[in-house]
């Protein structure tokens, strides 16, 4: 049995694949947020990419936000600050997704048109490219694991994703609810596998909240 991973001191290997380009986000945010007003947004607030007939970008300075797919509400990805939502909606006529805050957040807003102008004027194409590649690869990763993995593989993936979430969000979210909102797995199937992992000493869960990952075998 491997040494227990305390969630508050996360194992860097969980983030090794598809590392978030933090420097690119910070550089772009420094330019895009200059003339914007930061607003405190409460938990569970739904945000649309369309406002006043145009597209907008949300600059996340603090907190975490989930991207939901329209129609079934499945969570595609969730991201913590720093992050910019909406840059990939360049040619979308209709919104195929929406945002929901996972905790109290600090967010500023800029129109997509204004963001594009600043990126052009300041020659920020490299940062934009890194951000788009990261965002698209995260969504592709989610779609792949939904359709090609076994139930255990999906739960293993989601447990590692939950371990990366902010402390505030993780402590207020049960493992079962987190996995259910992001997959098509039944609650009974999720609970069965989680109970087996707890009994086997692979994970530590208290009052439904993930406290530690001891070891998650690739096959179970």
CATH class of the largest domain: Mainly Beta
List segments where confidence is low: pLDDT < 50 over at least 5 consecutive residues.
1-16
In percent terms, what proportion of residues is strand?
15-25%
Count up the domains.
2
Radius of gyration: 18 Å
Q: What's the CATH superfamily of the largest domain, by name?
A: Jelly Rolls
What count of helical segments does DSSP give?
7
Shape: elongated
Structure summarized in a few sentences:
With 220 residues, this protein is an alpha+beta fold. It has helices at 22-32, 112-121, 125-148, 151-164, 167-171, 175-182, 187-199, and strands at residues 5-6, 39-41, 46-47, 50-51, 54-62, 64-69, 75-80, 83-85, 97-101, 105-111, 203-206, 209-213.
